[in-house]
Amino acid sequence: MADNAVKRNAPTPWTDGASAPLIHFEGISKRFGDFVAVDHVDLAIYPGEFFSLLGASGCGKTTLLRMLAGFETPTGGRILIDGVDMTGIPPYERPVNMMFQSYALFPHMSVEDNIAFGLKQDGLAKAVIRDKVARSLDLVQMSRFAGRKPHQLSGGQRQRVALARCLAKEPKVVLLDEPLAALDKKLREQTQLELVNIQDRVGITFVMVTHDQGEAMTMSSRIGLMNAGRIEQVGSPVEIYEYPGSRFVADFIGAANMFEGTVKGGGGRLAIACPELAHDLEVAHADPLPAGSAVTVMVRPEKMMISRDKPEAGLNWAEGVVADIAYLGDVSIYHVRLTSGRKVQALQTNLRHTEEQRLTWDDAVHLSWHPANALVLTR
Amino acid sequence: MKAVSGRAGRFLVGLAPYAWLVLFFLIPFLIVFKISLSEARMGIPPYMPLVEWADGAVAQWHISLAGYGALFSDDLYALAYLSSLRLAAIATIGCLLLGYPAAYAIARSPGHVRQPLLMLVALPFWTSFLIRVYAWIGILKNEGLLNMALQALGIIDEPLQILETDWAVSIGMIYSYLPFMILPLYATLEKMDLSLLEAAADLGCKPFKAFLAVTLPLSMPGIIAGSMLVFIPAVGEFVIPDLLGGPDTLMIGKVLWAEFFDNRDWPAASAVAVAMLVVLVVPIMAFQHFETKRAEREG
Ligand SMILES: Nc1ncnc2c1ncn2[C@@H]1O[C@H](COP(=O)(O)OP(=O)(O)O)[C@@H](O)[C@H]1O
Ligand SMILES: [Mg+2]
């Protein structure tokens, strides 16, 4: 328990207003010819963060990262690292190190020489270099392989060497482009936690690019969700999942049931008329919205209770029949067809071995959820 | 029929290159080797048969090492070998110095201009080699284009004697063999993973240092292949020293020619040829050795 609590109690410098960001993207854009790959990104990343840029393939994540490393020149805006404007500063003078998606280990050099390469550029003394190389290798548990060439290593080992090579220079920021994409599933899950542990130990700010939402959720202090060159939302994994700011985010992260509706009125709790449902929905919402506004009500599948009985008063509910059941062992996902014909997902934990009244296909059911567990989306 | 088209067919196809090598390389070499061991004589052919069958039964051997003896008795041969190696080395280094930047520039140019540039490198092959070497006489001779241009620019007063010197031979060989250097170099440079250079820059390495630390070592296979392709034929080159060189230009190809056609001493000429093969086989073996070792290392 104590171990799990570490991350939760970690400082959140982005909320306290006093901390200065380590990395500041100010209106950064990048076009390739007519194509806009990155579109006016404003983003602040704070010291010690594990920040993930998450988004579908082609949305501009790598381009943003490469501008930070200095491999691409922004066509607009500027990037500050530790308060210093990086415009015109070549990659070899930036205080960042990148772990490439292909790892880009030098094939003609041993593991040791690969890691020493960056340190030699700094003109450090031989003994210091040897010491730092040994420590980096130890950190990623690759000391035994110091003399090997990259081609004599497995994919996972190469990934560790690439990481060690970044960390050896003790940069202000480590950039990781899909660091785990080339690993198989099991190794990937192990490595996720290990990477977070290493980052915790060295205390260097990590900026990671990934298209895997599970990876981003597991590893990050905050996530920047990207869509078509723009940052759609920035927030902690919990914020992004529980309070998505838009339909796109709600849809991208996890599964979401969405009902289109119109605000009828109310403050603190909105009453929303949904043509798809037999009755009005009640949703907790802090900001007042004028009556008549078109909104979307979003409910996550696990926040929907499913049962044959009529729900108690005060809950939102919908009626339907079970159309499909995905039994996953720990949980089951019920696809319920509403009277309107729409399908809605509800997720339930399978708490007991045997359920006397296990739901089955074509059962008539009620779905219900608490007003506080739904969300009103206006974009 | 079916069985033949299957395994036997594959076997025959696999055999074809060996048959080619045996027919056109091994057999001619054995003939030359045989002549090199024969006794010279006046007549046609200008050497004795190795074995004579006297009275139909008794074999009479006529083996002579005089051809090889000549190689050592006259230091002309040793000097010619050394001079050939020296000129071939100059040609190789010259090709490397000119060819590397050219190959590098082509490999790093945008995709759509690479093919036209490679075509330009191969373009000279469309014209006869002999004519291209002749053209160099027009450029290099005392009243040739180069001297006229230098004089017109006021850089020199008297024409430079370039033609009929080793300079002209070196220039001719560098010119002729340059494509053989550029093409293998291009092949290795083109397939190099450019993210390695980004990684080097990322780790604090400036571009020129990154070239020395990453690009150069990784292009070593191309450097070696190109150097072999230039050096080996350059050692045995005959046409270029004959046309561009002077009476003092000593190259083994010229000695070979003189031995065959002027002296009509076929055994001695064959011995020179066999010795030249040995001089050339050594670097080839070294090359092969290096290549297999590298392949083992890189996996
Ligand atoms: N050098 C380039 N030239 C032209 N288009 C590019 C270049 N690099 C990236 N792009 C385009 O920019 C978009 C974003 O690319 P990228 O940042 O690699 O996406 P991601 O990493 O999110 O998958 C893609 O559509 C890609 O085709
Ligand atoms: Mg990418």
Q: What sort of overall outline of chain A do the alpha carbons produce when their principal axes are compared?
A: elongated
Number of strands of chain A: 20
Unreliable segments of 5+ consecutive residues of chain A = 1-6
Give the strand order of the largest sheet of chain B, numbering strands 1, 2, ... along the chain: 1-2
CATH superfamily of the largest domain in chain A: P-loop containing nucleotide triphosphate hydrolases
Radius of gyration of chain A: 25 Å
**CATH A-level architecture of the largest domain in chain A:** 3-Layer(aba) Sandwich
Radius of gyration of chain B: 25 Å
Report on the structure:
Chain A has 379 residues and is an alpha+beta fold. Chain A has helices spanning 2-8, 13-16, 61-69, 111-121, 126-139, 155-168, 185-202, 213-219, 237-242, 247-252; strands at 23-32, 35-45, 50-54, 76-81, 84-85, 96-99, 173-177, 205-210, 222-227, 230-235, 257-265, 268-273, 281-285, 294-299, 305-307, 316-327, 331-338, 343-349, 364-369, 374-377. In chain A, strand 1 (23-32) and strand 2 form a beta hairpin. In chain A, helix 4 packs parallel to helix 6. The model of chain A is unreliable at 1-6 (pLDDT under 50). With 299 residues, chain B is mainly alpha-helical. The chains are: A alpha+beta (379), B mainly alpha (299). Chain A binds chain B through residues 69-71, 90-93, 96-98, 100, 102, 104-108, 117-118, 121-122, 149, 151-152, 165, 169, and chain B through 193, 195-196, 198-206, 209, 213-214, 217-218, 297-299. The complex binds adenosine-5'-diphosphate and magnesium ion (MG). Adenosine-5'-diphosphate binds at residues 32, 35, 37, 55, 57-63 of chain A.
Short characterization:
The complex is a heterodimer of chains A (379) and B (299). Chain A contains ten helices and 20 strands.
List the helices and strands and how they pair.
The complex is a heterodimer of chains A (379) and B (299).
Chain A: H1 2-8, H2 13-16, E1 23-32, E2 35-45, E3 50-54, H3 61-69, E4 76-81, E5 84-85, E6 96-99, H4 111-121, H5 126-139, H6 155-168, E7 173-177, H7 185-202, E8 205-210, H8 213-219, E9 222-227, E10 230-235, H9 237-242, H10 247-252, E11 257-265, E12 268-273, E13 281-285, E14 294-299, E15 305-307, E16 316-327, E17 331-338, E18 343-349, E19 364-369, E20 374-377
Chain B: H1 2-36, E1 51-54, E2 58-61, H2 66-73, H3 75-107, H4 111-122, H5 129-140, H6 145-152, H7 166-190, H8 195-202, H9 207-218, H10 220-235, H11 239-244, H12 252-262, H13 266-298
Antiparallel strand pairs in B: 1-2
Helix pairs in contact in B: 1-13, 2-3, 2-13, 3-7, 3-10, 7-10, 8-9, 10-13, 12-13
